[in-house]
Amino acid sequence: IDECVTLKNMPCPGRCINIPGSYRCNCSVAGYVESRNPHSCNDFDECSINNGGCSDRCENIHGSYKCRCERRGYKLAADQHSCEDLNECERYRKACSGGKCFNTVGSYYCKCTKSFVLSEDKSQCIDINECESNNGGCSMGCVNLFGSFKCTCPKDAYTIAADGFSCLDVDECENNKGGCDEKCINTIGSFKCLCETFGKVLSEDGKTCQFCTENTYFNSAKKSCTSCPKHSYIAEGSPHLSVDECICNNGFAGNPGKAVTCEGKN
């Protein structure tokens, strides 16, 4: 039987030689030496001789070896034995992000641009948050950006000035009277609507003008609709007219127009 042909897991790393009744391994291959057992070969530790020719660390593996460069800032050269400088500026795209990267033998250093500061380990540039110091000089909002910042103003009410720091009031009344039904008055950061038609007041939306509803009258002093107190009614005239007083019902006395309620029966 030729074991070199029939064995499923051939133990010989090199050549298998069939002999009568058995077989033996030829261990004259790189990475192995003869074993006392003719059916196998022993691994040869290449690192035991001159460090395997490695300039840094030699690591023995079964049937071979490999060199490693463990010193920071170096990499394995093309000859797979010596170590050469690692250009961190080319290898790591984020090295010195926010500045300029300068490679040195075994290391590198950063020069940071404006709006960045060098980290404590001097390996990277860290963004400066300008908004943390005096709000970046912005009169209102400040938003930090990578390598910069910008000033912001409340939407619709203000707009950023030409200096990029100040906020200018937007006159909402210039655009369709701010949506007011009658008169629009601009204020700093906002606006308000007024009703110019006598007897009209602002509705709940704060923009539309309307007459007072039934059972209320227009109080010219307060510029609002007022209801008559209990046991009284609106003086003669339409509800929206400037009556400014209510009249007590028959059998009651008082002066509701001057906040004196109608009480008792005459």
From TrEMBL:
<keyword id="KW-0677">Repeat</keyword>
<feature type="domain" description="EGF-like">
    <location>
        <begin position="130"/>
        <end position="168"/>
    </location>
</feature>
<feature type="domain" description="EGF-like">
    <location>
        <begin position="3"/>
        <end position="42"/>
    </location>
</feature>
<feature type="domain" description="EGF-like">
    <location>
        <begin position="88"/>
        <end position="126"/>
    </location>
</feature>
<protein>
    <recommendedName>
        <fullName>EGF-like domain-containing protein</fullName>
    </recommendedName>
</protein>
<dbReference type="InterPro" id="IPR049883">
    <property type="entry name" value="NOTCH1_EGF-like"/>
</dbReference>
<feature type="domain" description="EGF-like">
    <location>
        <begin position="46"/>
        <end position="84"/>
    </location>
</feature>
<feature type="domain" description="EGF-like">
    <location>
        <begin position="172"/>
        <end position="210"/>
    </location>
</feature>
<dbReference type="InterPro" id="IPR018097">
    <property type="entry name" value="EGF_Ca-bd_CS"/>
</dbReference>
<keyword id="KW-1015">Disulfide bond</keyword>
<keyword id="KW-0732">Signal</keyword>
<keyword id="KW-0964">Secreted</keyword>
<feature type="domain" description="EGF-like calcium-binding">
    <location>
        <begin position="85"/>
        <end position="126"/>
    </location>
</feature>
<keyword id="KW-0325">Glycoprotein</keyword>
<dbReference type="InterPro" id="IPR052080">
    <property type="entry name" value="vWF_C/EGF_Fibrillin"/>
</dbReference>
<feature type="domain" description="EGF-like calcium-binding">
    <location>
        <begin position="43"/>
        <end position="84"/>
    </location>
</feature>
<dbReference type="InterPro" id="IPR009030">
    <property type="entry name" value="Growth_fac_rcpt_cys_sf"/>
</dbReference>
<dbReference type="InterPro" id="IPR001881">
    <property type="entry name" value="EGF-like_Ca-bd_dom"/>
</dbReference>
<dbReference type="Pfam" id="PF07645">
    <property type="entry name" value="EGF_CA"/>
</dbReference>
<dbReference type="InterPro" id="IPR000152">
    <property type="entry name" value="EGF-type_Asp/Asn_hydroxyl_site"/>
</dbReference>
<feature type="domain" description="EGF-like calcium-binding">
    <location>
        <begin position="169"/>
        <end position="210"/>
    </location>
</feature>
<dbReference type="InterPro" id="IPR000742">
    <property type="entry name" value="EGF"/>
</dbReference>
<feature type="domain" description="EGF-like calcium-binding">
    <location>
        <begin position="1"/>
        <end position="42"/>
    </location>
</feature>
<dbReference type="Pfam" id="PF14670">
    <property type="entry name" value="FXa_inhibition"/>
</dbReference>
<dbReference type="GO" id="GO:0005509">
    <property type="term" value="F:calcium ion binding"/>
</dbReference>
<dbReference type="GO" id="GO:0005576">
    <property type="term" value="C:extracellular region"/>
</dbReference>
<feature type="domain" description="EGF-like calcium-binding">
    <location>
        <begin position="127"/>
        <end position="168"/>
    </location>
</feature>
<keyword id="KW-0245">EGF-like domain</keyword>
<feature type="domain" description="EGF-like">
    <location>
        <begin position="211"/>
        <end position="263"/>
    </location>
</feature>
